[in-house]
Amino acid sequence: MKSNKLLLLLLLLIVLLLVCFSLAAVVSQQREDIPNRVTPTNKNRQDLEDVANELKYYDIFRKKQGTIHRGKNVRVDKQGFFIRYDQTWYNLQGQLNGLNPPSTIAHVLVSESANTGQEKEVTDIVIAAMIDSCKTGKTYNVSNDGKRNGL
Question: Cα-flanking dihedrals φ and ψ of residue 122, to 5°?
């Protein structure tokens, strides 16, 4: 009986370790300057942060173009998707309302490789990348870097 409990405990530990080490590492990377960027005001930055925080996991990976969330002065749009090197990328932009192009204040490209099912973690990374993009004026890429997260 004692050996069965030990065997069960060992099996549980192995399964737990396999799960922990199989989690993909989704990361954001700062890239080039935002194309057609408009310099945001402090109010625009705060509005973008508020709107970006409304993003949901399904918003990020849907193929449908259009406005995802709209605030008083800023919105987050899905500008579509494209394929590069056999990888689908989703084009998310923070834009000022009521302006003709250029109106972009934040730009994030999200790789399909980031679609890991880790909804909260991936969404938080995309939101942080959107906010950082607005602050820095740089495009951010979010993708699975192929590394694994462990304990």
Answer: -65, -45
